[in-house]
Design brief:
Elements: H1 2-17, H2 24-44, H3 47-78, H4 86-117, H5 127-152, H6 156-181, H7 185-207, H8 220-254, H9 257-294, H10 298-325, H11 327-334, H12 344-368, H13 373-397, H14 399-419, H15 431-452, H16 459-480, H17 482-492
Helix pairs in contact: 2-6, 2-9, 3-4, 3-5, 3-8, 3-9, 5-6, 5-7, 6-7, 8-9, 8-13, 8-14, 9-10, 9-12, 10-12, 10-15, 12-14, 13-14, 15-16
């Protein structure tokens, strides 16, 4: 009897993990730790130090997206079709890892040449500093690639273990380094480099893919497959990096590192929340989309895509409204005192991230058909508009313009993506189907504004607001029947 019950429980857990919501709890945990990390860093380090860390971290992210982002997306796209037989596995993983090593080698030569030829390049970073930056880049990029490989090889437990070790390890080691080195940016950089390298090595060994690596396994035809799919994503990754992160460089150029620290710390909280939602839901939706597409079931692919978008909107719309209404609470409670003046940034960024995530669903049709050039064109349009606005207005009006242009840039990206979606895979957003979400979100926002009037900013008041918002929002959705219809569609998937 007990054995049957345990078997039934394991079956339910496995079923939940394989569902559209299965990976979301993991990303929630990662997001919570990320927000806690921002709180600790902004408490321990002054804005100018946090700003310097942000600039380094932003550069690392841009390099990763440009050098390896396309390879990671190509690996995710083709891993199911290239890892059946042992020979296929050897060819696939040898090509992935050797291409990654070649990308790092190219980056090393470019940085070394720039350091030697350009007198002001990476000024203040000697050989030791350059080594730390190299380890940060190699560790971060390789860890992200291996985490994706583990997940799409169905090694979820290993993926989760490495992911949680990575985020908690960085926080813990940074606190230890702070006790030894003080409020120096090196306390953060050294810790992140060390934990990322350990995470990569752990993921590499746990994946077992190291057994497949052979020089002879490097396959030019597989590289061509990767490039056909991923080449436009090189430009797309770089352009999206500009849309995501160019504002930090512009603020730094016209103002100072402390201002960058205030801006990016307030940016980080809504960004963490939405990346948690986007990645958590995407990891549940995308494998099902791929399977339906590989099965050449056009109707099932379209249903999965529409259900995924509805699920995303049902959690992202109240999240954006809650952040917009409660931004002063969030900044006061989760950031250091020197950072709280930038709290309105959160409202703009939350709105922008909402449209960014929705644009991804609009573009899934192009990703599934391995035609990513249209996505590049739309992202380029949004990025150029964003940069132009920032260059013209940030010098006069300050960093709040950069926050507003983030919202505008992502809104433009969504509108262009929706208008230019792939007709081969039907996808639309109908107001007559989604109106309950607007009603529930608006009702929740109005109620929170009333509840907040005259309320002191404390952790207890924030929790009251959050609980009240959840009850009101889902109460309205249940009352309109939308919640029941969405759950039914998810069960069908």
């Amino acid at each position: 009897m007990i054995r049957r019950k345990l078997k039934a429980i394991r079956k339910k857990v496995a079923g939940f993990q394989g569902s559209m919501l299965g990976y979301l709890p993991v990303k929630v945990a990662e997001g919570v730790i990320g927000i806690l990390t921002v709180k600790v860093y902004t408490t321990l380090f002054p804005p100018e130090v946090y700003g310097e860390y942000t600039m380094v971290n932003t550069t690392v992210n841009i390099l990763f997206l440009t050098l390896l982002g396309w390879l990671m997306q190509a690996a995710i796209r083709y891993i199911k079709g290239h890892t059946g037989r042992e020979e296929d596995k050897r060819r696939f993983f040898s090509t992935v890892y050797l291409t990654m090593a070649g990308a790092y080698g190219l980056l090393f030569l470019l940085v070394l040449g720039a350091k030697l030829l350009l007198p002001g390049f990476l000024e203040g970073y000697g050989p030791g500093g350059m080594l730390v930056l190299a380890l940060m880049m190699a560790g971060y990029g390789s860890t992200q690639l291996l985490l994706a490989i583990l997940l799409y090889m169905e090694h979820r437990v290993k993926n989760i273990a490495i992911l949680l070790f990575n985020v908690t390890g960085k926080l813990a080691l940074t606190v230890l380094a702070y006790n030894r080195l003080g409020p120096s940016v090196w306390s953060i950089l050294l810790s992140h480099a060390a934990v990322d390298m350990v995470s990569f090595l752990g993921a590499f060994l746990l994946s077992g893919t190291w057994r497949q690596i052979r020089w002879s396994g490097y396959d030019k035809e597989t590289v061509r497959d990767f490039m056909r799919y991923g080449y436009p994503l090189i430009g797309f990754s770089f352009v999206m990096a500009l849309l995501n992160m160019s504002d930090r460089y512009i603020i730094r150029f016209f103002q100072d590192r402390a201002t960058v620290g205030i801006y990016t710390s307030n940016y980080a909280i809504p960004s963490s929340v939405f990346m948690m939602l986007m990645m958590g839901l995407s990891r549940g939706v995308y494998p099902k989309l791929l399977k339906a597409h590989y099965d050449q079931d056009r109707d099932r692919t379209a249903r999965h895509l529409k259900t995924g978008a509805a699920l995303y909107l049902s959690v992202s719309m109240p999240a954006a409204m809650g952040i917009a209404v409660l931004h002063r609470h969030l900044s006061s409670l989760f950031l250091g005192k020197e950072y709280m003046g930038g709290s309105p940034v959160m409202a703009y960024v939350a709105g922008g991230m909402l449209f960014y995530g929705l644009a991804e669903y609009c573009n899934k049709g192009w990703e599934l058909t391995a035609n990513t050039l249209p996505i590049l064109k739309k992202s380029f349009l949004a990025a150029m508009a964003n940069i132009l606005v920032n260059l013209l207005l940030v010098p006069r009006w300050g960093y709040m313009v950069a926050a507003a242009s983030t919202l505008g840039g992502y809104l433009l990206f969504f509108l262009a993506s929706y208008r230019g979606r792939n007709p081969a895979i039907p996808f639309d957003l109908r107001i007559r189907e989604l109106w309950p979400l607007f009603l529930a979100t608006g009702t929740m926002g109005a109620a929170l504004l009333v509840v907040n009037r005259g309320m002191e900013i404390t952790l207890a008041s924030l929790l009251i607001n959050v609980m009240a918002g959840i009850i009101i929002y889902f109460g309205v959705l249940a009352g309109t029947g939308f919640l029941g219809r969405l759950l039914h569609r998810m069960r069908e998937v």
